[in-house]
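User: I want to check something. If I give you two sequences, will you return the structure for each one separately, not as a complex?

Assistant: Yes, each is folded on its own. Here is the first sequence with its structure:
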Amino acid sequence: MHSGGLELALVLLLAAVIAVPVFKRFGLGAVLGYLAAGVVLGPHVLGFVQDADRILNAAEVGVVMLLFLIGLELSPSRLMVMRRPVFGGGTVQVLITASVLGGLLLMYNFHWKSALIVGTALALSSTAVGLQLMSEHKALNSDYGRLGFAILLFQDLIAIPLLAAIPLLGGARNETLTWQDAAIAIGALALVIGLGRPVLRRLFGIVARTRMPEVFTATALLVVLGTAWLMQGAGLSPSLGAFLAGVLLADSEFRHEIESQIEPFKGLLLGLFFIAVGMGIDLDRVAAEPTLIATGVAVLLLVKFSILVIVGLAARLPLRSALMLGSLLWLGGEFAFVVFNEAQRVNLLGRINHDRLVAVVSLSMAITPVLVIALQRSLLLRKAQPTRPQHAPDEGLKNAGAQRPQVLIAGMGRFGQIVARLLTAQRIPFVALEADPDTVEDLRRFGNQLYYGDPTRPELLRSAGAEHIRVFVMTMDDPETNLRAVRLVRRMYPNAKVLARARNRQHAWKLMDMSAEPFREVFGSSLEASERVLTALGIPEEIARDHVQRFRAHDEQLLKAQHLVYDDEAAVMQTSRDARADLMDLFEADVGEGPDSAAGNRDPLKGADSGSAIRDS
């Protein structure tokens, strides 16, 4: 089909909108839905798209953004903690898998050079599919999810020397890696690691002060794509560059805002990537050699699965976790396509074997989502699940900051800072969001952990981990912003407790409509000042404190009563008049207890117009 860009975009979006909900409905996952849509739209079925490679090259941006977001979850300190599983588990998995698969290819009459390159390429797993499946099954923070990510990270690193070795093994010595190329690559890494953190934080700080969300989004995209482009130009993996940029921003105040801006683009482009992979499955080759292709897929999955399970058990994972690790990473990887193309270019791989290997890797990626679901539901997995952990997981895999914050403070002005200081004194972890970049910068200088962002945006709340929050403290100064944020939290997280700062009684009533507990911003300090006035007039401290406590209880009861009728001004005024009479009666019993106390008690309280309660701050 010959179609323009607009028609092609419509077809791809329509396919995603139809396929993904259908596959999710039957519990098959979004990845399989995208792959199926690609097969149907590709050149071997409906033929809407003939040049799948062009779409695949463009859609690899989705993988770049995925690695950037993963980097945002890893601070440099946590990445250092992970060095053991990255270089330990990753090295063991790649070396053993490449040796076994390379040996099998030698038995299949491959030359040793071709067997070495192809075996190593097949040892690599799909970062995009693996991480997407971990995300769908909520396994990214599990023991096997952390080890799986460490192995994938090492595979991204090993891909660089693998590409460099292909021209050398193919005899194209003029295309091999030179000392100059190595110096450029090392210099690019040093530039990103050394200057990236201060430069990026300064850049986002300047952009945030413009208060223009579209400019912030453009800046986030520029950083991701620009870092990937710089690494690619230096001969390194663009995904590695994006990952490093994410790590450098992981502990910055802009982390959650950047994540919320990038997430929609990542999801869309990653879906396009899976569609392009589906388009690349050569059904003609599969139909011509079904037994050979099926055997290749089975051997690839079984070899990688067995080795990954052994690696998981060696890392002291429970058997169930080791089985899940194997099922998530036993597939081939998208980087294998690049390796196969390069190997064919330097005559290390013939056309027929190239097509066979592409079909094997593509089918392994396509069937993995189904096999993961089947394995999870199997009796073997249920029986293998221990009643209690048999061994503690490797210390290098423990999540830095293991305790998830269960409190979110939205707004770090004077009100929110007091709440934050008290929680800090009690060593209670919390997440703080503030929309003013200057406030964020000032407070972070004093060691406060807070993040820049608008708490009225749902994607920012999700990025900040709001699904784990038990108590939301909404302390924004602007009442309308406060109400919007509370309304959003109530809609997204109806079971959470919401404590909200209220400007006045009218604001408090609106918050109470949404089942939020209001705290009038000057009510407590005004009562403290009132108690001080009474003691200054000679009333004993105990009596003054008792009067203030009784007044507070009376006013809170009045607030609740007026909430029931606050849209009726006449009813509110009548309630206020009745409350004033009740208040006078409340303290009438104290009159006559003594000449001093009578004079001290009655005059200050009777002189107060409780009817003004509907106008208080």
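And separately, the second sequence with its own structure:
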Amino acid sequence: MFFIPYTSFYHEQGPAGKDDRFKAGLDVKYGINESFTLDAILVPDFGQTKYDNLILNLSPYEQQFAENRPFFTEGTDLFSKGDLFYSRRIGAAPSFGYTTYDSATETLDQPATVNLLNAVKISGRTNHGLGIGVLNAVTEETHGTVTDIATGSKRSVVVEPLTNYNVLVLDQRFNQNSSVSFVNTNVSRDGSFYDANVSAFLFNLNTKKNTYNLSGDFKYSYIESDYQGFKTALNLEKTSGQYRWSLFGKYISNNYDINDLGYIAQTNYHNAYADASYRILNPTKWFNTFRVDVRSSVELQNNTGKPQDAFFNVGAQGNSVVNDYYYALVQLNPIETFDFYMPRSPGRYSYVPKSALAQLIFSSNYNRPFALDVNVVGRKYDEDRRLTYAWNFSPRYRVNDKLMLIYTFEYSRDLSDRGYVGNTDTDILYAERDIKTIVSQLSAKYALNNKMTLNLSARYYWSYSENRRMFTLRDDGYLDGTDFIAGLDDNFNVWNMDLNYSWWFAPGSQLSVLYRNNALDYTNIIRHRFNDNVRELFDDNLNNVFSISVRYYIDYNSLRRRK
């Protein structure tokens, strides 16, 4: 068993003013036995966690972020069973602020995140193949301030109650390569706020020679007030030999909802999918690995029977004899489909025209001092001028054994895209719009010695959506032209830069110093010139953060032996 007490100092200064904080907490790791480990954190400090890659999100779905907090990334393989656990829900932005005020007459000021009070996880596998995982976390009650626009009077409101998050996983292996699993997630909120529970049964069965696989699941969600739904899926697959195939089907009911502790974007549809592939099993004169895949899928909305997705694609990929990677894909979406989420209104939908897509990827061998990643993709729609294309390249250079540099540049355009922009009292508004996105990222790592490193990570993101024509959405999903409405464009800029010094001064003990510089700018006024966007982004938007964190490893068993 060992403890890692930590202290951290945090200083932030920016347009909102100055914020200084000092925090102390505790990490605990305890080997219960040779198979199971307990990890716990008390009053954790995630102030030095890597920044999120924010985007201009014009879709009807929330942006999903990668998990960067060590407690939720280390030793969590069991908790990924069933895809029911999205750890970013814990300590995310308050969920209930929208219920506490009238946006027409009041404004709400609330924290960006909810504080995590403590978390504990126990995981391991017995000698009989039973994997057990338990995770529990508690977040504190969080308040915001509602201000009356007319009178200026203020009141405090609860925007997130005291909440307990729990995940339980039981995974039994048998016959060496098969398993059955049970997963349960539960969110319990204090007071009158609703609770949520999801349970899943999973199976993964393989023949003794791993020739065939049969897998599937049944998942059931229950949200207080009798809001219930389910999802079920079945997959049959040939998993060996040069020629392989799979058949897959699933059904998701309308009220299936795992988003209190999981993530799901679409529900209320059923899907049929099939694929077949050919691959080489031994290296040839040209390739170490090579495979060709053919895939097809159809998704139908449950209530209307209308297709919401349908595609047929052919892809090829392989590694050359010098371990360069190549990938090519051609995809057809041969029928008109319908989007049941873009209108942001239950029961409404909008059409999506036929399209064709092509993609090429190249990635050179990373063992060389210089390597390059390139990705080019384009989609043409069966609609006048409607086209999407994007490309990115990412060179990386290992200067020597101490210094590594990686640069990434991304560029994308959506021409004559059509999507939701707002509502009037009687209509749902769509716009034909041009979208442009530029992303530039640099990361560098320098090893001062085997105990000290310097890490730099910087990202600039700029995207705008400029409306050309306006439409109203008809009940049948098609669009009628309407008068143009100004002021519904989007122009979004984000800058993030982290410079981190890390010193492992003793086994398991670390001193970390972080300087963070970030800025965000959003406006409805389109700025087409790159220089104008950079200037406005850094003008009165910059936040500067300086943080020091010290973690010291204490081996409890060593202390006992000394006594």
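Because they were folded independently, the notes below concern the second chain alone. The mean pLDDT is 93. DSSP finds three helices and 31 strands in the chain.
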